[in-house]
């Protein structure tokens, strides 16, 4: 009895403390980071449930209680492990429209859920088919021909997370988040393998509780690098990035200004103005090449630093932006300059800004 209690303490102490810490942190930050906190509550609940399930599995295995109840416990453990990975994937993809739309209204979101649903269905059938697992008359756990289906599905989601992490690293410059996601995914798969091969409990749930805390703290830190309305980097990061951009040599600077924001605010309200800013940022991000970064540097002002591009590339990006804006009720003025190593950023930015105001004046003349 003493040994059992000692084992339970060793298995549960770290994840319980970590989950308490995460819950308290989420509650403290909920007032000003509600959107971020809401992303992590489902993960917190899933890990807590997995902790309970693992403890039940451990106790039932010790007493060799291999009946229907134990099978249900194992079934839930398999699917909770996959569900945690699915939720981490959804957090990583939080900026994509696919996770803002109705579930049945977006086939892309449904496709991403298919591997989980397949694993769920196959593990359910084990209650009568023994495809994945069963318990013999002595209460011993036995594997079926499809016993590694949950593991394969976990690897599939792990690969999706890693591929998407590379995308946000390159395109969105969410480097810290991408690194944590890649490490978390690789180690989560490794923890699952250790549990499976050596028949131990608590490895994955302990790791995932710690990894989720680190992931939350990473997003919490990144939260203050962005303009919360548009998702573009804020002016503070813009200034910090100038030195890095300068040291890498030639790049382009684009100055973009949303037209008539004050008129939109006065006539339609500030919510309409916010929507105009968000739509403008969305179009710019979808139009710029990898290696280009968008910043909101003022009320209706945006700046893009485009690294490793030629002048033709810049003109193509601007043409794409203008084409996308045709389908909206908004317009913007834009100017650019090529920032070479021989010139200062202030000179390049002033040139881009001057071209932007010239473009704005031309647009006003043509609208008369």
Q: Can you describe what's shown?
A:
Helix 2 packs antiparallel against helix 7 (203-222) and helix 6 packs antiparallel against helix 7 (203-222). The radius of gyration is 26 Å and the shape is elongated. The strands form two sheets. It has a four-stranded antiparallel sheet, sandwiched between helices. It has a two-stranded antiparallel ribbon with strand order 1-2. The longest helix is centred in the N-terminal third of the chain and has 29 residues, at 34-62. It has helices spanning 2-29, 34-62, 68-92, 107-129, 149-170, 175-198, 203-222, 235-247, 261-268, 270-287, 311-326, 345-367; strands at residues 133-135, 141-143, 251-258, 292-296, 301-307, 332-339. The protein contains twelve helices and six strands. The chain folds into two domains: 2-225, Rhopdopsin 7-helix transmembrane proteins (Up-down Bundle), CATH 1.20.1070; 235-367, Reverse transcriptase/Diguanylate cyclase domain (Alpha-Beta Plaits). Strand 4 (292-296) and strand 5 (301-307) form a beta hairpin. With 368 residues, the protein is an alpha+beta fold.
């Amino acid at each position: 009895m003493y040994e059992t209690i000692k084992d339970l303490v060793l298995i549960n102490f770290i994840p319980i403390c970590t989950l308490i810490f995460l819950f308290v942190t989420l509650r403290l930050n909920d007032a000003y980071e509600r959107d971020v906190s809401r992303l992590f509550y489902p993960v917190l609940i899933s890990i807590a449930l997995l902790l309970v399930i693992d403890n039940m599995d451990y106790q039932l295995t010790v007493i060799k209680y291999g009946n229907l109840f134990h099978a249900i416990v194992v079934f839930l453990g398999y699917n909770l492990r996959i569900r945690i990975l699915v939720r981490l994937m959804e957090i990583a993809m939080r900026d994509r429209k696919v996770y803002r739309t109705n579930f049945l209204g977006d086939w892309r979101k449904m496709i991403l859920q298919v591997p989980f649903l397949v694993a769920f269905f196959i593990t359910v059938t084990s209650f009568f088919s023994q495809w994945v697992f069963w318990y013999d008359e002595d209460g011993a756990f036995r594997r079926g021909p499809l016993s590694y289906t949950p593991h394969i599905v976990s690897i599939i989601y792990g690969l999706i997370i890693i591929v998407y992490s590379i995308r946000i690293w390159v395109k969105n410059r969410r480097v810290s988040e991408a690194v944590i996601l890649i490490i978390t995914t690789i180690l989560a798969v490794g923890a699952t393998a250790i549990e499976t091969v050596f028949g131990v409990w608590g490895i994955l749930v302990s790791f995932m509780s710690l990894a989720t805390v680190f992931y939350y703290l990473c997003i919490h830190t990144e939260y203050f690098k962005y303009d919360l309305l548009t998702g573009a980097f804020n002016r503070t990061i813009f200034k910090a990035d100038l030195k890095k951009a300068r040291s890498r040599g030639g790049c382009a600077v684009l100055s973009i200004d949303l037209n008539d924001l004050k008129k939109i605010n006065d006539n339609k309200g500030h919510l309409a103005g916010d929507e105009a800013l968000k739509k403008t940022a969305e179009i710019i991000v979808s139009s710029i090449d990898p290696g280009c970064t968008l910043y909101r540097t003022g009320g209706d002002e945006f700046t893009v630093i485009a690294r490793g591009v030629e002048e033709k590339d810049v003109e193509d990006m601007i043409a794409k932006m203008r084409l996308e804006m045709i389908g909206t009720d908004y317009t913007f003025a834009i100017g650019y300059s090529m920032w070479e190593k021989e010139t200062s950023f202030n000179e390049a930015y002033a040139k881009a800004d001057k071209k932007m105001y010239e473009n704005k004046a031309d647009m006003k003349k043509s609208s008369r």
